[in-house]
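Box S1 | Example of a co-folding query
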Amino acid sequence: MDDRRVPTDLAALPKAEVHVHLEGSVRPATLDELCHRGRYVVPRTFHDLNGFIHAVSAAWTTMMQPGDYARLVREYCEDAARAGIRYAEVELVPGGRPYDCLGEAVEAASRQRDVAVRFVAGLNRDLPLELAWMMLEATKGVPEVVAVGLGGAEDGFPPEPFAALFAEARRWGLHSAPHAGEDAGAVSVRGALAALGAERIQHGVRAVEDPALVAELAARGIPLAICPTSNLRLGVVRSLDDHPLRDLWASGVRVSVNTDDPGFFGCDLVGEYVIAGRLLGLDRAGYARLALNSVESTFAPEEVKADLRRAIADWLDG
Ligand SMILES: [Zn+2]
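Box S1 (continued) | Returned holo structure for zinc ion
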């Protein structure tokens, strides 16, 4: 029997998702509805990060009414539960109205039973720093926000201007989980580690260009939250066969797979596991190890991680 077949119960494998954007998780049908409501047009095709940022920014303008962020959370959780996600750290970028959107999202998340949702306060490299400080301020006294993130175009927008803000966020007890090493190379990952005290790197795939950096990530146990389909759709890799996941996994880096913006990329987490399984030649124990990596990549309390580890062990035995 070939034990490298995709397990038929892969959707039931308990997983954590640590790289997904609430606004980018919008179901296509929901986005259609939101566009229709506000008479907006949102481009659905893009070939690189800048094109995608243009599309997602347009989508974001459709999500500005009360109730929209609660709906996004509800629908993400329904989809996540179907993919076996038990715990998620969801990044959100509510721009000019962080208090309303965050409050609504946290309230909606508190009603979820199948998926425990925590939030990452998303900051944007290419927006004014004042907005980033406002977002950080909005997280005060919101224990469901566990980390601060940094996204947007990397090229021309290095992390260093955000160093003081990240230092302040870390003083407040927030973790550091910036994007890096997606459309800029290893230098961007090094910058995220040095300037932002990154404890997890969102993407980070281009770290592979620098073997010393890969060794450092492995030695320090810094997780990379990798999104294969996103990388393909945005031209970060030419084909899935070229994806550096294999090299990073073989080098002992803690890698997980994630959907990033599933509403735009047409992916789901089970599909990302199948892609990883093919790239890494995973057997059943390998899939369980990948899921364990996702759990160890979270900022969840130890008791939550312990529950998830047990649930994964049960799946492996099942
Ligand atoms: Zn992302």
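The longest strand covers residues 116-124. The chain has 14 helices and nine strands.
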